[in-house]
Model the fold of this input.
Amino acid sequence: CNNYEVIDLGVMVPAAKILETAKKEKVDIIGLSGLITPSLDEMAHVAKEMQRQDFKIPLLIGGATTSRVHTAVKIAPHYAGPVVWVKDASRGVGVASNLLSTDLKADFLEKVKAEYDEVRTRHQGKKSGVRLLPLAEARANKTKIDWASSPPTAPRKTGVSVFNNYPLAELAPYIDWTPFFITWEMKGRYPDILTDEKTGQEATKLFNDAQAMLRRIIDGRWFTAKGVIGLFHANSVNEDDIEVYTDETRAQTLTVLHSLRQQDEKPPGRPNRALADFVAPKQSGLKDYIGGFAVSIHGADELAKKYAKEHDDYSAIMAKALADRLAEAFAERLHERVRKEFWAHAPAEQLDNDALIREEYQGIRPAPGYPACPDHTEKELLFNLIEASKHTGVKLTESFAMWPAAAVSGFYFAHPQARYFAVGSLGKDQMEDYARRKNIDLATMERWLSPNLGYEPQE
Done:
C-alpha cells in the first residue's frame, strides 16, 4: 500500500499478539484503529505494554472513536516513544514518511510533542472549568413532561416482529448518501457535493459507480437484510431506570434498562436530560411502552473478499460502504414503519427522505454507545430483550461491537418531547449510583465510560 508493506492482523487482536508480531516481523511502525469506545482503553494498554517491553518504534492511533485530545491525554503519557494521532487514512502515508525519514523525523516529533503538551494543558483547563451538578440537583432539573395532556400511545401490537430477507429495493430510497462520501474522505453534503467546484467531478464518478454496484447487489440478491423490532410495556422508575414488563399486567419485570443523566450546569429553562425522562413514571399510573430494534446486512464481507482476491480494492471498499448505508437505511425504514404502523404514534406522518435524515419525525431511536446512551454494555440487555442474535445473525463481541459490522441497533422512544442529546461529563456520584444500579463494580463501569468521566478515576 503506497510502497509500504502492511501486515493486517484483523480486528479485536490482543495486545500480546500485536507486539509479538511486531518483534517477529521487525516492523518500523505499529498502527492501531478503534471503532468503539472500549478500543480506547485497549490502545492505552498497548502503549503501556510497549513501554514495559522497551519498544522504541512509533505508535500510530486512528479510527472513528479516537481524537487528538484522547491520544494526547490518555495514550501518549504511557509510552516514551512517538505516539501520533492520524486523523484519517489519507494522512497515514504522510505521517509514516515523516516518522521514517532521518531528515524530517526530529522536527516532526518536536512539533507533535509541542502540540500535545498544549492539548493536555487546554484539556485540563477545560475540565476544571466545567461545573457538574450533584446528581440530586440534576435529577431535580429533569425534563418536565405534562403526561396528562400527552398520555402514552399504546402500540397496535406488542412483542417481537421479525423481518427476514427484507427487500433491498425498498431500502435503497432511504439511503443517506452524505456519510457514504465521508467514508471515501470526501467532505460535502449530498447532493451538493456532486456539483462542487473542487470535488464534484470525482464525487459524481464515485456516486455513479455506487449506483451501478447497488443495482447489481439488488438484482443479484448479493446481500441479505435481516431485522427485528420489539415493542414492550414499560415505565420509568428510580428517576433514571426503565422497567420493561412481560405483559400488560406489569406484574413481572422482563429487564431493567439504565439511563444516564446530564450533569453539566444548564442555563435557566434547560433540563438535565436522561432517556428515562421520556417514559411515563410508574407512580403516575400511566401505561407506557418502549421499543428496541436490530438490523443487519449480510454478504458484504464475502463480496469484499471476492474483490480483494481479484486485487480490486476499490470494489471491495465500495461493497462494504454500501452495506453500511443499507443497514442505516434499514434502520430508517423500520423506524418509519414503527411510527406509522406498529406503534402507530404518528400514523399520519408524511416525510420525504430529506426530512427523515433531518430527524423531523416524532420520537427518537438512540443507540447504546452513542451520546444519549454512551454505555455499550446496555447493548447486551437490548439484544437479550429482542433476541437480536437469533433473529438477525448479529453477534456481540467482548467489547460489545456488533458483527457483522453492517448492523444497527437501538431503542425506540415515542413521546413528542423525546429529543436526542449528549450525556456529556459524568460526576463520580452518578458513576457510583449507576454502577450500583447495574450491579457492576465502579472500576469496570469507569472503563466502559472513560470518555465521559468528569473526574480522574483511581488507578
